[in-house]
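Section 5.1 Outputs to date
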Amino acid sequence: MSAPNRAAGPSESGGAAADRDDERFEGRLAVVLLSGGLDSATCLAWARSRGFRAVTLAVRYGQRHAVELEAARRISRALGALEHREVAVDLSAIGGSALTADIPVPRGRDLAGRDIPVTYVPARNTVFLALALGLAEVLDASDLVAGMNAIDYSGYPDCRPEFLAAFEDLARVATRAGVEGRRTRIHAPLIALGKAEIIRLGASLGVNFSLTHSCYDPAPDGRACGACDACRLRRQGFAAAGLADPTRYVES
């Protein structure tokens, strides 16, 4: 796979240190959070293109769209991860989100609005990064790769560079590796990219987007609803990128 043209890091908006465009990580082991969506698939392809050996981690957190876990397994195999792990943490016991509780998933919402939508899952990315951090420590890895995005992120507070920088600070004091002086680094190559840029980047790295899943409220057969925030951002992204969207939508 060829290297991406641009890899933005959290420091572009005041967070953790950014990856240089020419930075290589040959043979280093990274834990890559893999949700099964196009963003995390692009992150895995980015990590592989930069020389990382990757162990992927997906989380079964009580989400209604568990079909994404099947997508994560497919993507991990297709993009050459060493191993795929899946952890169960039942965030539906907490609730508070349309993705984990009996709350309708919004459709046709104003994507330009800045209110935090009901699809926000409280503490989800904090939990995900904590699990990835624990796995990285067990594997003696110092790198985490995650698909947080501060542009097309639906207003979620845990997708911002400030959050990633704070988590790196936490890792320094919360782990044996940190107190022994080994820095844990979070790579967020999509943090400052719009959806069309992410899709172009993934395409340039050989991501097969037909393997990915984005919908918050899919039909029982796995087809995407086409109207939730995730579907609409995905559709707009493919259109703006000038590429065909391979997603199966319920109306197609």
